[in-house]
Write a structure and sequence with these properties.
Layout lengths: L6 E5 L6 E5 L4 E5 L2 H7 L4 E7 L3 E4 L3 E6 L5 E6 L6 E4 L7 E5 L13 E3 L15 E2 L7
Parallel strand pairs: 3-10, 10-11
Antiparallel strand pairs: 1-2, 2-5, 3-4, 4-9, 6-7, 7-8, 8-9
């Protein structure tokens, strides 16, 4: 059961893009897919997934759209001023959004539970113990 009184806030490096996500996230994890590795310049992207109705964004993010490995499109939103990658999904269109945990004002609220696309993990990128590991996206 989600606690709607919880609000997770965050934003980009310069403060031009801000968000609030209400309630508990549906999922918290680490994505090791090639797309996320390249978009982040790291071994994975730490993410929190919320219903779109729970997310409010201020500012004017730019989007980068790429072909997703599972088909369809991957949409990533970033700040046009500082370049920070902030969240995933199309505002007003998609039913879920992913907040990139590195953008949280309080990073202590992030506690990953799963690792996805472990099959694409770079050999040097570690999977923390205790996570449920999926070789692909769960359900595929």
């Amino acid at each position: 059961m989600s606690d709607a009184s919880k609000v997770h806030s965050g934003g980009c490096l310069c403060g031009g893009i801000r968000y609030q996500a209400a309630g508990d996230p549906k999922y918290m994890g680490l994505c090791y897919c090639v797309d996320c590795r390249k978009a982040s310049g790291s071994g994975y992207i730490p993410f929190m997934s919320f219903a779109a109705s729970a997310v409010r964004v201020s500012g004017h993010p730019l989007q980068f759209v790429s072909k997703a490995l599972r088909g369809g499109e991957a949409v990533r939103n970033f700040c046009p001023t500082c370049g920070s990658l902030v969240f995933g999904g199309r505002l007003g269109i998609d039913t879920e959004h992913t907040i990139y945990a590195g953008t949280l004002d309080d990073p202590s609220v992030f506690s990953p539970r799963l690792a996805i696309f472990a099959r694409d993990r770079a050999p040097w990128a570690q999977i923390p113990p205790g996570l449920t590991v999926h070789e692909r996206l769960p359900g595929l």
